[in-house]
């Protein structure tokens, strides 16, 4: 069953407290299937013997240690920022019980990721105070955070009527900002840098921790894009040419912010990696996300980190404004 075949009522958006209290029959099987997958993926940070990487950390260069510290500076607060986006900007506006189940598991996963990064800070001799301050004091990092906060505020601090076209467009904007851009481009850019150490036989246990996080994030991305497409399919009036252009411009603007961030992440480069290399990968990611949303690629660049392909090939192609999503999955128990 696809979203096209799913019953039209109840619709996926709504704010009724007494609605969405029955799980069966499942209206959106893709959400139920993703919940099952997320539960099966459950893991805990201390299952990884991170202390075994201390010898690697001791022989890393100052630029390599800077890159690792910088990643922790960004990832740690932003995992919690995603939770705010989910709790205040998504969960209250979704009706379906199966979506609530998945979102609850995703919020737990974001908390688990935060604890995983705390585990890194506890294990390696990283200046925790400096790491915590960077997301506020480093302009390129603060700019990315301000971008995300701006969209979350539209959902939380301003009056939002989800029954209106403007309200539904704000809902989609928020999904694009936190799910497609933050999780689908910015996080994946950082994952590539983190996993690049393993390519040089460094921080192998740290890389295992990142592998588990990427596995979670691939489902987050899949759920978010499915949710965007379902909202557009059930409410085609919001998919105007102007709105499409705005969404595309959001993603293009996010690339420029990430380019500045990566120049601060690797000001001098490290063995086998520099800011230009990462930013080519960012443009490749942006093209992937644009294509997955039905837009034309903006950059036309090849993937410079083909070893990361497995982490990114999580979605089949979908179309933002024709909204037939071939990646929807069916749980046989939900039929």
List the helices and strands and how they pair.
Elements: H1 29-40, H2 54-58, H3 62-89, H4 97-123, H5 128-137, H6 139-156, H7 165-199, H8 204-234, H9 241-265, H10 275-292, H11 309-312
Helix pairs in contact: 1-4, 1-8, 3-4, 3-5, 3-6, 3-7, 4-8, 5-6, 6-7, 6-9, 7-8, 7-9, 7-10, 9-10
Keywords: Deoxyribonucleotide synthesis, Iron, Membrane, Metal-binding, Oxidoreductase, Transmembrane, Transmembrane helix
Cofactor: Fe cation
InterPro entries: Ferritin-like_SF (IPR009078), RNR-like (IPR012348), RNR_small (IPR033909), RNR_small_fam (IPR000358)
Counting helices, strands and paired strands, the structural category is: mainly alpha
Number of alpha- plus pi-helical segments: 11
Rounded mean pLDDT score? 85
Q: Characterize the biggest β-sheet.
A: none
The geometry reads as globular
Radius of gyration: 20 Å
Compute the separation of the termini in Å: 8 Å
- In the CATH scheme, what's the topology name? Ribonucleotide Reductase, subunit A
Keywords: Deoxyribonucleotide synthesis, Iron, Membrane, Metal-binding, Oxidoreductase, Transmembrane, Transmembrane helix
Catalytic activity: a 2'-deoxyribonucleoside 5'-diphosphate + [thioredoxin]-disulfide + H2O = a ribonucleoside 5'-diphosphate + [thioredoxin]-dithiol
Organism: Microlunatus ginsengisoli
Subunit structure: Tetramer of two alpha and two beta subunits.
């Amino acid at each position: 069953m696809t979203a096209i075949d799913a019953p039209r009522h109840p619709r996926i958006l709504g704010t009724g407290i007494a609605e969405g209290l029955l799980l069966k029959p499942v209206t959106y099987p893709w959400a139920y299937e993703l919940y099952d997958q997320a539960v099966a993926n459950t893991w805990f940070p201390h299952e990884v013997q991170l202390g075994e990487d201390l010898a690697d950390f001791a022989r890393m260069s100052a630029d390599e240690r800077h890159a690792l510290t910088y990643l922790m500076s960004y990832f740690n607060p932003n995992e919690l920022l995603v939770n705010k986006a989910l709790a205040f900007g998504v969960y209250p506006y979704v009706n379906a019980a199966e979506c609530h189940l998945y979102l609850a598991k995703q919020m737990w996963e974001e908390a688990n990721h935060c604890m995983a990064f705390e585990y890194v800070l506890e294990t390696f001799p990283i200046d925790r105070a400096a790491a915590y301050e960077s997301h506020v004091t480093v302009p390129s990092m603060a700019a990315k955070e301000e971008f995300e906060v701006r969209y979350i505020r539209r959902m939380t601090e301003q009056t939002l009527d989800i029954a209106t076209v403007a309200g539904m467009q704000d809902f989609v904007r928020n999904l694009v900002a936190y799910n497609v851009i933050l999780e689908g481009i910015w996080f994946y850019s950082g994952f590539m840098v983190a996993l690049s150490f393993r390519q040089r036989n460094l921080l192998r246990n740290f890389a295992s921790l990142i592998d588990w996080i990427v596995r979670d994030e691939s489902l987050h991305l899949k759920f978010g894009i499915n949710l965007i497409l379902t909202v557009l399919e059930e409410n085609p009036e919001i998919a105007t040419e102007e709105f499409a252009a705005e969404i595309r411009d959001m993603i293009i603007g996010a690339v420029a912010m990430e380019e500045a961030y990566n120049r601060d992440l690797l000001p001098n480069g490290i063995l086998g990696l520099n800011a230009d290399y990462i930013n080519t990968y960012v443009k490749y990611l942006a093209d992937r996300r644009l294509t997955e949303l039905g837009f034309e690629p903006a950059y036309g660049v090849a993937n410079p980190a083909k070893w990361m392909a497995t982490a990114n090939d999580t979605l089949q192609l979908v179309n933002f404004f024709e909204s037939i999503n071939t990646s929807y999955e069916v749980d046989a128990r939900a039929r």
